[in-house]
Write a structure and sequence with these properties.
With 265 residues, the chain is of the alpha/beta class. The chain has a single domain (8-263), classed as L-arginine/glycine Amidinotransferase, Chain A (5-stranded Propeller), CATH 3.75.10. The protein is built from five helices and 15 strands. The protein has a six-stranded mixed β-sheet with strand order 2-1-15-3-4-5, with helices on both faces. A hairpin with a 4-residue loop joins strand 3 (75-78) and strand 4 (83-86).
């Protein structure tokens, strides 16, 4: 555990590419993605992380992959033991994004383990806590073989598979914010899987804000435009930092999707 309960002190990011408009998305405004604005929003996101004392490693753009800015999905990384589990995407068009991340981590001295067929596992389905429990979404992107791969990677943890068919990734509906507390949209994921945790409910009409990033010291990074969620989090004793990420929302991406944490677990 580091810096007021934050689970990581370093992340990897990758800037968006001009092909972002071709991202895999169900959002009705996908075709209106503004690349220039996306670049500015990503730069501001990175600035916020650095201001919070997080070391940011930036990889080069990956032009052949419209979704490559959502780097969280490429791996699950344990900095404390220098091991990384490299994803096998459930979304076939994204396969290949993970290769440069694998190479970078290997050069940093990490032992890399690959998720192998028939398993699929994407980082956006992996919810890491500091109390010995890892949750993993069983979704269209991560299958039961992927859950087994994660269980082998986190052998000393309890790994809990959570069916999450109403969202792309588990972290679209639930996130860990320290202090054995989860933010959750109960209409989107069964709360019974999270017994023993304190649950802070995000209203369904602001479900997008449940994808928030815990920065340590009771600070959370939340997408702009969700006043009810901001008020709820402040009432719970959190300091809220808001980030405008409208162009990434059009690609069904959120604040956690934009960085790959190097977990200190």
């Amino acid at each position: 555990m580091l810096d007021g309960g934050r689970l990581y002190n370093s992340v990897i990011v990758r800037p968006p590419v001009k092909e972002l408009v071709k991202c895999v998305s169900t959002h009705p405004l996908r075709n209106t993605v503004d690349y220039g604005l996306a670049v500015k929003q990503h730069e501001n996101y990175v600035k916020i992380l650095r201001e919070e004392g997080i070391a940011v490693y930036e990889l080069p753009r990956l032009g052949d992959f419209p979704d490559s800015v959502f780097i969280q999905d490429t791996a699950v990384v344990r900095s404390a033991v220098k091991r990384a589990l490299i994803s096998r995407f459930g979304e076939p068009s994204r396969r290949g994004e993970e290769l440069s991340v694998r190479e970078f981590l290997s050069k940093m001295g990490f032992e890399v383990v690959d998720v192998k067929e028939p398993a699929t596992l994407e980082g956006g389905d992996v919810l890491v806590t500091d109390v010995g429990v890892i949750f993993v979404g069983v979704t269209s992107r991560t299958n039961l073989y992927g859950v087994d791969a994660l269980r082998n990677f986190f052998k000393e943890f309890r790994v809990v598979g959570v069916p999450a068919t109403k969202v792309f990734h588990l972290l679209s509906a639930v996130n860990y914010v320290g202090n054995k507390t989860l933010v959750i949209v109960p209409e989107l994921v069964d709360t019974s899987y999270f017994n023993g945790f304190r649950l802070v409910r995000v209203p369904l009409e602001e479900a997008y804000a449940a994808n928030m990033l815990y920065l340590g010291d009771n600070k959370v990074l939340v997408p702009e435009g969700h006043p009810k969620t901001v008020e709820i989090m402040k009432r719970e004793g959190y300091k809220v930092i808001e980030a405008e990420i409208s162009e990434f929302r059009k690609c069904d991406g959120g604040v956690t999707c934009l960085s790959l944490p190097l977990y200190e677990v």
